[in-house]
Every structure is written in C-alpha cells, then in structure tokens.
Protein: Formate--tetrahydrofolate ligase
Amino acid sequence: MLTDIEIAQAATLLPIHNVAEKLGLSAEAWLPYGHHIAKLTQATVSKLQQQPARAKLILVTAISPTPAGEGKTTTTIGLTDALNHAGYPAMACLREPSMGPVFGMKGGATGGGYAQVVPMENINLHFTGDFHAISAANNLLAALIDNHIYHGNALGFEHVSWRRCMDMNDRALRRVTLDHEVHTGFDITVASEVMAIFCLATDLQDLTARLGRIQVGSNAAGNPIFASDLQAEGAMTALLKDAFQPNLVQTLAGSPALVHGGPFANIAHGCNSLVATRSALRLADYVVTEAGFGADLGAEKFMDIKCRQSGLRPDVAVLVATVRALKYHGGIEVADLNNEHLDALQAGLANLKKHLDNLHHQFGLPVLVALNHFSHDTEAEVALVDAAVQSWGYQMHVCKHWANGASGASDLAKALVTQLSQASTGARLAYADDVALEEKLALVARQIYGADGVAFSPAAQAQLHALAAASQGLPVCVAKTQYSFSCDPKQRNVPVGHTLLVRELRLARGAGFVVAICGDIMTMPGLPKQPASIRIGVAADGKISGLS
Structure:
C-alpha cells in the first residue's frame, strides 16, 4: 500500500493556470509561486468582495478527536472532489498546516490517501511563507516594546502582556526571563493574536486597524497601551501584505482549493482566513470549509467568532466520525480498535449524538454524518452506527474517499445537494453579543460541553473583574483540550458532572475576542516522546519522505 506522500508524489498535477481558469480567473488575477501554487492578488480579492456571494457554505467538523484519527481534512477534500465529479462546481477552503504538528503528532495535515491537497510537501513545510510573516510581525511588535522601554519608557509601561511566538513546538520557551527579571514567554504562532487578526480581517485597512488595537501592556494607572501607541501597525502590515493574499492550490483530483491562515481550534479560533472564505463564495457554487478539532471547539468558534464577526452562516454541517474513534470513546484502547466491539461502539455513540445535537439544536444547522470508513470496520459495526443515526433523525453516509477519491464520497455529495435544496430555519449563534463574559462562558460550558458550570482561578477571577468593561460585546474563545468535552483529556465520550476550569483570561482586542485558558492547556505545545520528525528525511535526489 502506498503512503500518503508516495500517492502525492506519483500524481500528475495540473499547471496552476489551469486551476485558476476553472474559476474564471485571468492571468492578471493571481501571482504564481512555481508551477502549482499561486496567490490571488489583493486587487482580485477586493474585486471579488464587491460581488454577491453565490455559493452554498458547507461546514465540515467532527466528533471529539482520538488517537485513532477522524479524517476531517480528508473528508473536506473528498467531498469537494465528489461534488465536482458530479458536476457541481466546488472548492475547498482549508487552513495551512503548522509545522508544530507536522514535526510533532501528525507528520502532515493535507488530507490522506486519494483525498489530498497538493503539492503536499510545500503545503506542509513553509508553503508560501505566510506563517513566517505572521511570526515576524508578532515579534517585531515585541522588539518595539522592548526598544521603547530601553529608550526611556515614555508610555510608562508597568506591565507588558505581549508574548513572542514561533511556529514550532518548544516547551522550553513557554516561560522566558528577560533582563531585570521580566517574565514573558512564547506561544506557538497559530495561537498568536496576529494569526487571529490575519484570519478575521476583511482587507488591508481592517488588518492595519486591528493590529493597532492590540493591547500590549498597561501603565502604572492600569490604563491600556496599544500597538498603535508604538506606531507599530504600519510596519506589521507591511510584513503581512503578501501573506494576506490567499493561496490557490489543487486536490489530487484537480479541484481548486484556497489554503490560507491556520489558527488551532484548541487554543485559538480554528478557522481559515475570512478573505479566503469570502473569495471562494464568489468563485464556486459550493464551498467546503473545515473547522478544527471537534465540533465543541472548531464548529462553536466558527459560529460564535467567525460567523458573528463576518455575517457568514453555513448552510449545512457535515459531522465526521469513524467506527474506530467511537469504539475508543466507548472504552477500547488504540491497540485493540481493529477488532469488532459492538458494546463499546454502542457506548461511544453518545459522543456522536452530543455533537449532532449541538450542531442541530444549539446552532440550528442541518447535519449529515460522514462515516469515514476504515478497512477493519465490520458490516455489523457500520450497521449499528447507521441505525443509531437514523433513530435520532439524521442521515449517515459511509465514505471511502481515502481509498477511492471522489467516487468514495459520491453518496455524501448527492445527499448534501439534496439537503441544500430544502428550506432551512437558518443558523444561529450560541449567545447574544450583550451577554456578560461570565455568562457567555457559562452558556458554552453548559450547552456545548455539558458541564455543570464554570469555576475561575483566583487570577482569572481578578481578570474577569478587570476586563468587565473592555470585554463588553466580545465573544469568548475557549482554549481547552480537544480530546474531551471536559478540561480533562482523559475523560472520553460524554463526561457528566464536570466543571469548566478557567485558569487565565487574555483580552485579544485586535482579534475581537477574549481567550479563556482552561485546565492544563498550553499555548506553546510540546513534542511527543516519538515526534513525527524522526520519520522525515530527504533522498539524494531531493525527494522528501516521511510526511503524511
């Protein structure tokens, strides 16, 4: 059996101008980055924004992640290919992979099997340099703060809240001591406020304004100090100008894809860039986008942050599940997941139902279940999931796009088009803008996570009081483990009787939300004991191996 990278390297890719032509884009509308990658020009993006959106927006999300994998990105790509294969013009909108998980847990994040975006080596490693530009802009601001203090501290910094970032898992940088015993640290780039701003800004002017609104510290009186006080936003925008142009690539089947921006959903808001999504909605009839990790994180933030700020609303959701992951939630360990365990599968279905009910009842979305098929799934296991999903009033479709590409997701594509032809009551958000921050957290905790309530550390309680005025009207971005509805990654399935434990609150004025750091989650992840990097290498001819 070929590996993901072997499949990708054996493929014959279309020249990028052929992909652009499918979208009706002239040669002046994009800038080539080699033969198979392009960036839409800023003029093209601006022109597209002036046109009415024509596409249906499809949100792909998943059950709670497990070590067995769910295949959310693979399903997004396979569904896009299946729609195009059936004659429905579609394109994918995805996030760019962070090198943290590429070298850490995952080894890559461009799909798998015969449902991949390509060229996968470039996309997984550096791509067009967007993340480097975001890191540079973030760290320029940090350098300007230090420089300002060094040269007299005219703004009267008493406290500096701005942190540095890099696109790599390095736990040693979580806490750093500077001169004069000043404590700071690094976040991974995908968790930085600059990344969030980059992905939520509507244009270069909005990008600049948001960067200027970043609160970087406070003076002795407790008054905020902003990036604009340092006149930093212009230079930061200059670093981000080219990166802000969406990246055009293709799937193995030649479907167009915009891959742009990449915040994590466990510690950030988990959605690709707004400019990419809005552009896609004017270039195709169907846009398939992905929200990171489980629906309790990615889909909730897609709705309550991205949709709230942009006015976008998805027309339908696709919830990805696997038999293996459901058995894991039912208590089976990874080493035994290839064996049939109907009782464990039955128990694990509770996780699927909770996510389905959240999407449908809390957010008002029609939902289809995509059962991402693995070769060891038995007929009895698939039938059990299908019967349960039908009994709850939803539809399930077995998907084999990993092995078969577009044809493997054809049933899902047909059902999706049928669903989209029906009237919908309309998507809604989990809470109103004018609800207090503490109540927003409580609503998400109770309604989405099934928690009994919220508890604040003493530090978070003080921050909640201090942020009372500044947080008015802002949504909350919960940073917590992706592996559980609770704050404890070991609590599988649908835990009950748990409490959302808020350790710290961070105001992201430029991004337009408040981050609630919960449990033991870290905004600078560490590498696992056996990182994926040990499998990655380069042959004498320059061919990369080991990515997945």
The chain has three domains: 4-128+243-420, 130-240, 437-518.
